[in-house]
């Protein structure tokens, strides 16, 4: 059982639609500790001050943990509130930045909601109540929208994830969240009933693997089509070069022993990739963040969500994240089933050897992915991922 985390101690710095700073509300606590989850922040501001706010972005925090602690956000209000505000003297906290996401700017969320409203009207299911802001951080903005035919979700992502809508429009819709509309980084989805599958029993874990592998089998030999959708290129040449750049950039901050092991690993990648290819499991679709929490299940079906990290590469790159938190017994069940699926589909292939050879490569991939996040988000929001590249490089260095 996971430990209970302390609440967040939240300060909201308010601005108007032009970005002009108005002052800050008195701090308050919210029970949900995770910084990116803002629905309770919004509802508490309404309950305490009768004030409707839209949280734009994280400004500062006193902890690097992505949860709990003192957290300050910038929040937009439609008009100056009828409540005493604390003066705010450090106006540099609201300076513009070229990497700021659209939804983190005043007026950005309103523009996203206007697009969603137009799409819902076009579908004949207009919004039937107030939009609920659920999440905002460097990787997404999430809103839950009541419509005349149930709930819908608006998701807006950075440019480097903008292929998600195209993926959802192209892949098998029976195992994906139902897509209403998409436009660049915006997607509008029907709500998926059910719960995420953290802690799922082994009989459900193997069903999740079945879903993913079935999708991957559909795209064998069609990598050019996948690349045209704009997803990441996790194939050997591109991934090897990306991993080498990530190691080179991070080397000064790594322990000497780790840096040496990584240098050796990078040097061995051409032969390792050749050995992986000889195992006979073909390149195809890669989800990129496949784990039980990204599977939603009800009594009728399972769906795979969050396709922002998706792309093309070795399908067993999706193995590492899925099994990371499994018990030894569940791990054995899942690994055996996963390998059997590929052996049945591609006679003569060796998925077990491929998986072992890919283990440090998958860690390098995670490090490179987090470095890409850091390179494309503004400084105040890098706290979410600042330690991740070094952590995953250290893992890669310790995998035989």
Structure description:
The chain has helices spanning 39-49, 108-123, 164-170, 202-218, 223-228, 236-250, 256-278, 319-323, 328-345, 351-375, 388-398; strands at 8-15, 21-24, 28-30, 54-61, 69-76, 132-137, 140-147, 150-156, 179-183, 186-190, 195-196, 232-234, 284-286, 295-297, 302-304, 311-313. Strands 1, 2, 3, 4 and 5 form a five-stranded mixed sheet that branches. It has a five-stranded antiparallel sheet with strand order 6-7-8-10-9, sandwiched between helices. A three-stranded antiparallel sheet has the order 11-14-15, with helices on one face. The two termini are 31 Å apart. With 400 residues, the protein is of the alpha+beta class. It folds into three domains: 8-95, no CATH class; 104-190, 2-Layer Sandwich (Phosphorylase Kinase, domain 1); 196-398, Aminoglycoside phosphotransferase (APH), C-terminal lobe (Aminoglycoside 3'-phosphotransferase, Chain: A, domain 2), CATH 3.90.1200. It contains eleven helices and 16 strands. It is 38% helix and 20% strand. The relative contact order is 0.11. The chain is globular and about 70 Å long. Strand 1 (8-15) and strand 2 form a beta hairpin.
